[in-house]
Amino acid sequence: MKLKLLTLAMLCGSAALLTGCSDNDNKVEVKPPTNEQQTDDSKQPVDDKQPADDKQPTDDKQPTDDKQPEEPVIAPGTLLELRVMETTDLHANLMNFNYFSNKEDNKVGLVKTATLIRQARDAVKNSVLVDNGDLIQGSPLGDYMAKIKGLEDGDVHPIYEAMNTLDYDVANIGNHEFNFGLEFLDEAIDDAKFPYISANVFIDDGDDDPSNDLSLFKPYVIQEKQVVDKNGDTQTLKIGYIGFVPPQIMQWDKANLEGKVIAKDIVDMAEHYVPKMKAAGADIIIAIPHSGLETAEKKPLAENASYYLSKVDGIDAIMFGHAHANFPGPRYAGLEEHGVDNEKGTINGVAAVMPGFWGNNLGIIDMTLEYGKDGWQVKNTQSTLQPISVTNEDRTVTSLAINDAQVENAAMSAHEETKTWVNEPFAKISDEVNSYFALVNDDPSIQIVTDAQLWYTQTIVQGTELGELPVLSAGAPFRAGRGGPDDFTAVEKGDIAYRNVADLYIYPNVLKVLKLNGAEVKQWLEMSAGQFNQITPNSEEVQVLVNTNFPSYNFDVLDGVSYQIDVTEPARYDTKGNKVSDGNRIKALTYQGELVTDEQVFLVATNNYRASGGGNFPGISSEKIVVDSPNENRQVVADYIALQSSKNTETGMDPSADSNWSFAPVAGANVVFYSSPSDKAVAFSARFAHITPLNQTTDDGFAIYQIDLTQPAN
């Protein structure tokens, strides 16, 4: 039986995570190597003074005897075409199914992407396939496997049952891989029939000497690939793959990772390892960063570092992700001055692709290589995206791929079990709950969460030294259109099941409580108010209220206080938490009818992501945590709904929002925002005198609504 990752660490010390207890055992416990030439660099300290093992084991797919044949002579000018394919940010979406709405959804699912993979592979002579992480978390199926069913030694996660049918060559670790802890991650990936890599996550050995740090995963692998050149001759191409994850995992999953691992700068590790890969014989190097594309000035430990990876000498292609966006695509238009070619799909001349999320696109880079005096060199590239569906003008969806039978068969058992689990009623609510207008109104989908956290926190601090402090609660709209015009919470009144709770709170976060003063509370809200564009009063020009570059999961509402947001003022902070003005958007901040003072002390219930610095909120850090709860926010919400429902068994819990925040009045402005185009959203808007549907849609399918800011909504 395989010893688990954390057990090895306890028995043998941190090095056992990589080498086992025996000096002769070179197996990497995090993921056994299969079918690749791999370096032993994962066993080497980072310091270049430590020699790397230059011996490269032969690809398991290519049996050899002890006598190695001489390298064939390749004629200069020989051309070779290679297709590199990528999936990323699948978030446990195996099937074309929406567990929240309990119906088929042909806009998502590896079961669709798999068909495109097989077609794209069959269309060329030479291809490889990579996955870029955020794989095991993000849908109810992921939660069911991690939190309900679990994995025992020998169990195969349905995600890997499905992916093992597709002949992936390599996979990279994403930040959400850590959400369920290292032990679950280890058990999940140990049945993948492809190697895992990540070059910037290291075992925390407790010292301050970076020269002896050991990688948690293989930093990179070099695989020998038998390919056919343009002349029809077989060649051996040595392809190097190197992966990266945002260093912010140490904030976002502090509870799972602190004291166990550390994370380093993506670009620094690329500059360290890429020369080693070239020295080890890699003909081409493909970087797989779980990291988005930003052209702003480079900063240490940057979350989105793909742009600066393009400047690392030796990287030939970048298969990136994390941002849930498409590259090439409209989001990245206008960056020519930064060296971004949005037609060809290159960044500073380096081929790159990012294929969206939830399996909605397959990313492809077609590379032409030419052999010369310096070996194989990239001669030309073209990046493309292949979507699994198209949305028509009438909002109907046309599928562009049939379900892949092998993936469907591999996923079906877990899929059916998940459907049963998420649909089991456990409580009732007396009115519908949705997030259609969560960015412009105090909203019941947030109110339920903040009320639940408030109830839980007041219960656990009662009778302690914290028990006399006023408690606030922070919540944000997780589903407010980030995944497209259909990505909104929508829960009917009546019976409520787990799928509804997962709809309200989609992340497996853990509840934390911070101790803050009034000044820090106000700055928290100033950061949240960056959700809105600055509005000019007394202007006939149409002005868009919501800043779509500001992620809705960072628009925190703080319940327990009352306040207004003055959008005529400039935002004080940008999306990264940098102060960009002296704007003062938060007005009339009161607690129980009295103005909040800078010195006043509060407890604020939130989640581990925010409490550990996620979102870059000013002054918010884990040092201010005073209640380190082990309970998941989502479970707290479920418990609260059940409790409130039990108090009124006939109609259930009342989910109404308390309207504790509103916009400060703005005179004479023609203001619009975008939301769901569904009939239900339009019908729900009739409850609000200040919101009017315009019966128009944007190019990407969102409905346009007008909002009257001349008076507070409440």
From TrEMBL:
Describe the location of the Calcineurin-like phosphoesterase domain by residue ranges. Answer: 82-325
Q: Please list the cofactors this protein needs.
A: a divalent metal cation
> Which GO cellular component terms, listed alphabetically, does the Swiss-Prot or TrEMBL entry include?
outer membrane-bounded periplasmic space
Specify whether Signal is a keyword of the entry: yes
Q: Would you indicate the residue range of the signal peptide?
A: 1-18
Keyword entries, A-Z: Hydrolase, Metal-binding, Multifunctional enzyme, Nucleotide-binding, Signal
Catalyzed reactions per annotation: a ribonucleoside 3'-phosphate + H2O = a ribonucleoside + phosphate; a nucleoside 2',3'-cyclic phosphate + H2O = a nucleoside 3'-phosphate + H(+)
Give the GO biological process terms. nucleotide catabolic process
Comp. bias intervals (Basic and acidic residues): 40-70
Protein family membership: Belongs to the 5'-nucleotidase family.
| Name of the featured protein | Bifunctional 2',3'-cyclic-nucleotide 2'-phosphodiesterase/3'-nucleotidase
Natural source organism: Pseudoalteromonas rubra
Q: What does UniProt list as this organism's lineage?
A: Bacteria, Pseudomonadati, Pseudomonadota, Gammaproteobacteria, Alteromonadales
